[in-house]
Amino acid sequence: MVVAERKINVSFAENITDNYISASQKIRVLSEDWVLNQIYCPNCGAVKIYEYENNKPVADFYCKKCNEDFELKSKKGKIGKTVPAGAYSKMIERINSTTKPNFFFVGYLESFYVNDFFVVPKHFFISEIIEKRKPL
Ligand SMILES: [Zn+2]
User: Which domain covers residue 45, as residue numbers?
Assistant: First the structure.
């Protein structure tokens, strides 16, 4: 039985990044665009999720139907046991807040193809699994 079929485009839309200079900015824009256009709400199944305005501290995306928040983490290559996620204190603050987001993880290849995507529901994020990065 086929319940639902959805064709997923696995390549980033590279032509949208002309105005972005740094590689990290470019990847952020490309991967956010990809999620926005390919991923439905994993919580309630709504066909579309929406993007928060840039630099909103809450999260990257939200669902208008169930109000869940989603944060995107992208990484080149294979996603291993740990993923760099910015400042430790900020992350702890986020996962202990009432607006704790769910997480999307995207692994991509050099040629801007998505080779991995998964969702980690927010209740799996507890402060004990956040590692402090060693100082440089
Ligand atoms: Zn939803």
Answer: 21-129
- In this structure, what are the phi and psi dihedrals at residue 15, rounded to the nearest 5 degrees? -70, -5
Task: Calculate how far, in angstroms, residue 31's C-alpha sits from the geometric centre of ligand 1.
Answer: 20
Residue 45 CA, distance from chain mean position: 17
Does residue 14 contact residue 57 with C-beta atoms inside 8 Å? no
- Residue 33 is part of a domain; what is its CATH number? 3.40.210.30
Domain count, the chain: 1
Q: How far is the CA of 40 from the centre of ligand 1 (A)?
A: 8
Distance of CA 72 to the CA centre of its chain: 1
pTM over cut 0.85: no
111 touches 68 (CB < 8 A): no
Q: List, in sequence order, the alpha helices (H) in 8-99.
A: 23-38, 88-95
Instruction: Convert the pLDDT of each residue in 55-68 to its tens digit.
Output: 666 689 999 999 99
